Amino acid sequence: MEHIRTTKVEQVKVLDRFSTNNKSLTGTLYLTATHLLFIDSHQKETWILHHHIASVEKLSLTTSGCPLVIQCKNFRIVHFVVPRERDCHDIYNSLLQLSKQAKYEDLYAFSYNPKQNEAERLRGWQLLDLAEEYKRMGVPNAHWQLSDANRDYKVCETYPRDLYVPRIASKPTIVGSSKFRSKGRFPVLSYYHQEKEAAICRCSQPLSGFSARCLEDEHLLQAVSKANPVNRYMYVMDTRPKLNAMANRAAGKGYENEDNYSNIRFQFVGIENIHVMRSSLQKLLEVSGAKGLSVNDFYSGLESAGWLRHIKAVMDAAIFLAKAITVENASVLVHCSDGWDRTSQVCSLGSLLLDPYYRTIKGFMVLIQKDWISFGHKFSERCGHLDGDPKEISPVFIQFLECVWHLTEQFPQAFEFNEAFLLQIHEHIHSCQFGNFLGNCQKEREELKLEEKTYSLWPFLLDDQTKYQNALYSSPPHRLTVLEPSTVSFQFKFWRSMYHQFDRTLHPRQSVFHTVMAMSAQNKQLEKELRDLESKLQQHTNKQTAGVLTKEQLHSVRPDSPALKASLCLKEQALLPVADALRTIEGSEATDNRYSDYAETFAKAEPGVVSLEYGVARMTC
Amino acid sequence: MEFAELIKTPRVDNVMLHRPFYPAVEGTLCLTGHHLILSSRQDNTEELWLLHSNIDAIDKRFVGSLGTIIIKCKDLRIIQLDIPGMEECLNIASSIEALSTLDSITLMYPFFYRPMFEVVEDGWHAFLPEHEFELYAATTSEWRLSYVNKEFAVCPSYPPIVIVPNSIDDEALRKVATFRHGGRFPVLSYYHPKNGMVIMRSGQPLTGTNGRRCKEDEKLINATLRTGKRGYIIDTRSLNVAQQARAKGGGFEQEAHYPQWRRIHKSIERYHVLQDSLIKLVEACNDQTHSMDRWLSKLEASNWLTHIKEILTTACLVAQCIDREGASILIHGTEGTDSTLQVASLAQIILEPRSRTIRGFEALIEREWLQAGHPFQHRCAQSAYCSSKQKWESPVFLLFLDCVWQILRQFPCSFEFNEHFLIMLFEHAYASQFGTFLGNNESERCKLKLQQKTMSLWSWVNRPSELSKFTNPLFEANSLVIWPSVAPQSLQLWEGVFLRWNRSSKYLDEAYEEMVNIIEYNKELQAKVNLLRRQLAELETEDGIQESP
Questions:
Q1: For the whole model, what pTM was predicted?
Q2: How much is the ipTM here?
C-alpha cells in the first residue's frame, strides 16, 4: 500500500478510443491494492487489474486536464483525463509501481482468496494429472518408459521431474545427451500416437557448433527412432529459420548433422524468434489502434506487421508434424533454440491436430499443462509478470491461442470450447490471479510453493464451463480424427475478438454463437420438462383408469370454462424466452457510442460536412 | 432454329471435366442453344448444366491433339474441359464463344425457358408500385402517385408510375425532368414513418457552366421539407468530379438557389474503376499460392473493401440524417442509376425492418433497382474474367449485395434471409433462366414483353420449397434501426462469393446445418411442452371438478 498516495479522484473523464470528436464519460477513479476502478455516471464499473497494465503514459497537459493513457496486456486501452495534474501524477506513479512487481510474493495470486477451503484448493491443483495423461496415450509401454533421471531436477532444471524416454535409452545415454543440448533439454516424449506407434519428442538445439558430436545424443535419437516399430527413420524438425540456426553454430550451438545421425530426416520450418514476434505484435496493435483507419492502411499495416505470416508459419509447422505421423508413420523430434517457445507451439498444436481429446475443454487444459507449463515455457518472463528484461517478453503463447482460434474457424464443430475460453485463458496468463502461470518452470514453481499458497485456474474454468461450451460441437466419429486445416493465405484473418476485445463498437451487434448456445441450453431444460410432464400425465392416466366410471359423466357436464383457457394462455406465455438479453440490439440505444455523439454535435452548430469514421459519426464545421 | 448454325459440333465423347471440389469426370459433352451439358451417362453422377450466358471468358490450349478449354463463369467458378481432337475442340470453343455473347436479348434463355414447377404467385405482379404506395398512403397524404411517365416519354429510365410530392403537378414534373440528367426528376425513394422524413433520388441537375436554374425543381424538392426544416443533398461524387460535370452540362445544386439544403459530397467510385477492382480481387482470391504478404497486398490493391466502406459509410450518413437529425435527403450522382441506388437502398436496409424480410428485400430490389432503372443488362454483361472492358460494365449491384452481407454479418438475427439468398441474387443478375434482370429499365422490359414471354425470378423464389433454403433460422423480427460498424476491422471479404470455388465449405456447411437442427429441435420441443402442459392443465381441472362436488 505504500505506493498508493491518492485512492480516489473525482471528475475523471474517459475518452472513447476511436471516437474522433473527443466524446467522453465522466466518473470517479479509485485505486485499490490490486485494481484500478472507474465508475462512470451510469454506475458502470470498469476494473483494471494492476498486473494487466502493460504501460502507463502521461501525456502533456490539456485545457481539460491531464491525460493518462493505460495500455493493458489484454489489449484494453483506456484514455483518462484527470482534472488536476497532481492527482494524475500520483496515480501515474502509483500505477508504475503497482504494475511492475519485483517479487513473486507481491503478485495477486498470493493474496487472492476465492473463499475455498483448503481441501478444495488442493483438489483444484490435482485436477490435472500428467501421469494419467501419458497413460491415456498408452505410455508406459513396450517402447517407452518413465525415467527417474530428472527426479531431483539434476539433469535439467527447466524440465519436469517425470519424463518419458525410449525404454532402450540408458541413464548414461540420457545424461550424456543432456550435456550436448542447450540448457540440458534432451529429447523426451511429448505425445505418443497409439495407433501409429509414432512419437512427438521435443528437446533444445544440440551444442554441435561446426563439427562437435555426441555419441550419447546420437544413441538417444536412434533409440527414439527404434521405439517406432513401423518406421525406422524419424524427422528432426528445427523450427527456426535456417539462417538463425546456422548463426547459432558460431556460438557452439546449432543443429543436427544428418551424416552423424542414422535414420534422420532433417527439416527447417522457419518460425521467427521471440524478438521478431514481439515487434510484430506491437506493429499490429499500432495499426489496428489508429484513429480514422482506412481500409488500405489497415491491410498494408497487416502486411507490414507480418503477424499473420508468423501465425501461418506456426500452423504450417504443426501440419508438417501431424502429416509426418499420420501419413509417413514417422516419429518426429522438434526443437528450436532452447526448446520452450517455438517447440511448445509446434508440439502442442501438432498434438491438437492429431488427437481430438485436446479439443475438449479438459483436454485443452491438459495440453497447456503438459507442453507449456510443465515443459518450461517461461510464462513469467514471456508475460512480464515481474519487473524484468523487456526483451524476454513475447507473445508466443498468444500465437498458439490464435492458431487454435483459426482452427475453430475452419472446423466449427471440432472443438468443445469456444472463443470465450481462449480469451479467458489469455486473460489469466497475465492476471497473476492464479498460480498456474507464475514462474518459468516446474522447479521454480515448487520453490515458490504455489500449490500451498495460491489457487489453480483450471477448476474455476471447469466450474464455469457452460460459458465456454460450443453448442455446435460434435465429438468425432473415432478416437483419432485428424484435423487437416488449409493454410492458404486467405484463410487467415485478423482476430478482432482478441485484439479489440474491449472495443465493443467494432463487433457484430448480435451473436449467432450466443443465440445458438442459449437455445441449446434451453433445449436441455425443455427435454427435462417434457419428461416431467410425461410422467405427470402418466400418473393422471393411471388415476383416471381407476376412476373411469365417473369420467364420462364428467365430460358431459364440464363447461368450456373461459377462465381455464385464459390460464392456459398465461402458461404458454411464461415459456422461457430465449435469452432475450442476448438478442437485444444495442445499435439503437442512446448509450451506444456508434451514434450517440452524433445528436449532440448537431445541436451545437451548423455543420458543413458530415462524415463517418470508424463507425462513429462525426460532424465537422 | 438459328442456334444450329452456331453449333458446329453438337456432341463430343470422352471429354474430361475438371471442376472445383469434384473428382474429374469423363463423359459426353453436348452443346444446345443455351446450355453446355456434360454427362457421364452413369447413375449417381451429377451432370453439369452450364448456361452459356453464365460464361464470362474462355481460354483454349493444345497439347498434341488434346485440346483443353478453360471456362470462366460469371459466378466466378472456373471449369476445365479436356477434349480429344483438335477440330472438335476448336469447334466447341468457337460455339461457346458465339453462344455466350449473343447480342440479341430475345435469343436469351429466359425466352425459351419453360418452368417445370407450378407457379403459385406470378412474380411479375407481386410488387406493383400501387401496392407499395398503399403502405405509405396509410401514414401520409403528402405524397401521390404520378402517371406522368406512363409512356416513358418524360424519363425513359423511370417506371410508368412514380411517387412525388402531392403539391407538385405533372406539368411541373415535365419541366423538372428537362433540368435533370436523363429526365430523372426527384422521386420518393423512402418514407420514414417514425418522423415523416424522406429519401428522394434523382439525376444530377443540368446547371452547366452558366448556373442554369429551374424554379420548378427548387419548388419540388422544397415541397418535401417541413416548415423550418433543412434537408441534405447527398452528392455521391466528390466536389471536384461534380464541378467537372458542369463542363458537360451537368452539375450540382447551388446553395443560393437551394438555401434550405446543405450539400454533402461523398466519393463513391463508378464504372470501370469498380470493374477493375472486381477483376483484381478475384485474381487475388483465385491464386492459392500467394504468400501471406502478397495476398494482403493484393487484397489491399483491389480496393474492393474500400469501396464497400465508402458505400456503407454514405448509406449510414443518410440513415443518420433521417433518423437522428430528422432531416430529409435527396441523393444523386451523375445519372442517378448506380451509386445513388446503392446508397438509397442500403439506407433503407438500415432504417426499415421490412426491407430486412425476404418479401421486403425483394420489393426493395424491384423498386429501388429494377424499376428505378439500374441498367442491369449493361452493368452485368460481363463479370470478373472479361477482357472487353466496356465502360458500362460494372459490379454496382454486387457491391450492394456485399454491403448487405456485411450488415447481415453484424446483425445475424435481424434478417429474414440468409447469405444464400444474396448469392442467388448475384448469380441471377449475371445469368438466369428468368427474365427479371433482363433489360436496362422498365421501358425496355415493356418492349421486350418480358411479362408475357418470360418467367419472373420471384415466381420461382417465393415458393415454400425454395424459400426454405433462403430463410435465416435465427431471424427474429427487429423493429429497430441497425447501425453497422464501418471500421476496416469490422468489414470482411465475402467468402461465400469470392472464395466459394477456392476453399471447401464442407465443415462450415455442416456447422450451419447443426445450427438449424438445434433451432428446429427447439421449436419442436416448445410445441410438445405446450401441448402437454395444456393436456395436464385440462386433466388437473377435471380432477378439480371431480373432487369438488
A1: 0.92
A2: 0.94
